Amino acid sequence: MKTDWAAALAIAAMLAAGSAVAQTSAAPPAARTAASVETLDYVVQRGDTLIDLATAYMHRPLDYRRVQRENRVANPRRLAIGRTLALPVDLLRADPDEARIAGFRGAATLNQDGRSAAPAPGQTVREGAVLTTGANAFVRLALSDGSHVVVPSNSRVRVSRLRRYAINGAVDHALTVEAGRAESRVTPRRRPGGFAIRTPVSVSAVRGTDFRVSFDDDADRSSTEVLEGAVAIASGQAETLAAADQGVSAAAGAVRLLPLLPAPALARPDAPQTQAQVAFDIQPLPGAERYRGRVAQDAGMIEAFSEADSAPGGPLVFGEMEEGAFFLRLTALSPEGLEGKSTTYSFIRARNGVGGLASALDQRDRRRFYRFRWEAEGVGAATFRFQLWREAEDGTVDGPLLVDQPGLTDEAFTLSDLPPGVYSWRVQGARHRFGRLLEAWSEPQQLRIGR
Predict the structure, then answer these.
(1) Which PANTHER family match (predicted)?
(2) What is the pTM for the complete model shown?
């Protein structure tokens, strides 16, 4: 697939500047015409000649002839100071630029210069490098102009272009999402620089914005979601513009412009995560096919370390997690594969539970002693509350609580001479963590006592 990059960048620049351009599936004819002669204005300085400019800033010294012809310069060695020349961008030389690894978590690899190894913070990344992440792995790439790209879990991204124009230092960068996703926050760039993310079926081009790109190999479909600014997306001969809160699904040379889904909400946003597995219940959102969550140590998701998806109606499960104060970023995905707007929650992860429940009978001096035991789960001192009640034949509670004993510090409690019958018992664990009182009940256990 061959895409006119200049046209895509021109479209994005016009929309970002507030130009009243219609959002259609094909680039306007004016944009395509302008792209074929894209130029950079250069103001002549004292001592400039066309030959010197070509030697310093263009691919070949003889490129001055085209500049002379298109600008109608009579003498290439005599230029009027202050005159503006239109320099064709395709003649301008772009030298190699570099990026660096700003951070990473989990199983990630950097394939560069014929070697594949785990990335290192601060490591230089050059054009042609490939970043690969496994499950719950993230790599953050810092570009030379302050832009950042995050490669989330289960992704493979190639650094396909890192260049800097010799004439004015404008940077021109491009990535290729070969599998999975890439999330970018691009600082505004001077012409003729730009930023683009390719997939096998599309190109998303900008000069400054916040957007995400993903590629689904099974569906042969790419998705672009714009969070801030504007993005021009091209697939085959089709092109379209996406503004903030819009997304584009591209497949088989066709593009669909759609609004992004709103951010979903947690069912219990203030509840601490105390169980063995970290899991969140999500309020149903119309139009959502899946939900996605990302957990990080900071609200900006720079130190992200875990990610999970869930189907509607089911919990968003992350599994085991160390204790601490964390942040959850929550999004919804549409049937077209577009990831919607996000919301971020803070939450406390502090293990607090009661497990290993067991009961034993000890007969002494013609008396029956029933010893109930359990194990505290979590960090720090805990207190316990023991409850026991009688069950009816249908399994429901038969009468009031027979025992309700709070303030226990031992992981055991003994009762004697319980009458025959069916009982249920449970234990609550309570502890103070991160400035909060955490309380959690065990599952009820049944106890049958015969005559």
Answers:
(1) LIPL45-RELATED LIPOPROTEIN-RELATED
(2) 0.77
